[in-house]
Amino acid sequence: GAAVSAMAAQNIGAGRWDRISRITGYGISYLLAITGAMVVVILIFHEALLALFLSHNQAVIDAAWNMQLLASWSFMLFGCTMILFGVMRANGVVVAPLLILVFTLFAVRLGFYYLAYPRIGADALWLSFPVGSAVSLTLAALVYWQGGWREAKLMVPMHEEECREAVHSETEPAGRIAPTG
């Protein structure tokens, strides 16, 4: 997400908006491939990996395996959300991503937990992660595709004469006439 944000910021600064969607797509593709591979490895080798942290207590390993099955794949959804937010932040849009994350953390995750706990028990806690991540991704995608974030301006462009004056005031005139070195 940080790398995508930096690439997007550089291209936004250069006025190359035509590259932004491609950068976002590549970022999401890499995230899904790398994070997906990690989740698959963790799920395939769950017994050995969990035993590293939980000893060989089978009851605890079974409980942890259930948690992994319910929640681990939500990292891919949340990662996609972070990439979309990173691209928006590259253009100075920070309020919408913040509000979406606050809403999904408190209203969606906690709301899902409290509503689902009476029916499914402790699994409601672990299922609240993918539910919250799915809602975050949906809202992030809506804001991204709506496109209003592209209209934000980070700073007011400097007038040409003001720019020329600033350049001349910051240089040493003699240095330009008779450069040394």
User: What gross morphology would you assign?
Assistant: elongated
Fraction of residues in H or I helices: over 70%
Main sheet characteristics: none
The secondary-structure class comes to mainly alpha
Number of helices: 9
Classify the oligomer.
single chain
Q: Kindly report the average pLDDT value.
A: 87
Total tally of structural domains: 1
Terminal-residue CA separation: 43 Å
* Rg for CA atoms: 24 Å
What is the beta-strand fraction?
under 5%
Q: Helices and strands, in N-to-C order?
A: HHHHHHHHH
Describe the model:
By secondary structure, the chain is mainly alpha-helical. It has one domain (2-170). The protein is built from nine helices and no strands. The chain has helices at 2-13, 20-44, 46-54, 58-71, 74-90, 95-120, 123-146, 160-169, 173-177. Helix 1 (2-13) runs antiparallel to helix 2 (20-44) and helix 1 runs parallel beside helix 5. The protein is elongated. The mean pLDDT is 87.
